[in-house]
Task: structure prediction
Amino acid sequence: MTGITADGIEIDRFFEASPAEVFEAWTTPQHFARWFGGNTIEVPLDQLDFAPEIEGTWKATMVLPDGNTINWAGDFLEIVPNERFVFTLTDNPAEPERAAVVVTLAPAAEDGVDGTLIHFSQETPGFAPEQQAAALAGWQGFLDDLLPSQA
Result:
């Protein structure tokens, strides 16, 4: 399912890549910096603190095309290599509330092509419907750039 749910947003997406390749795109700093924000937003590596480990934290700065920035922060909650990645995020690091993001990966085939099915979900507490729609569209755009070979 891809869409808005009672608790947040969900996206199902197939990639022509192994679960290991997709997992690496989510958990390796240089890959994460390349796709997080999509192809029009920069996440400078020198402004990214992203080393996934349980109970670890992360921070990133997005530089928007107009030069404005968005600061992100979160925590790593669960890491099962090539299967599951759970973290939190907020674009207001001074506030303690963070939304959970769950990414599950499963080997799959589509039209006879082997690959990986991602199931992505993010909580959207307190979001208005238009904010949920914007978050859904944003993540869909990010995922468009997840793997360079499929961008």
Remarks:
- The two ends are 21 Å apart (CA to CA).
- The chain has a mean pLDDT of 95.
- Helices lie at 19-27, 29-35, 129-144.
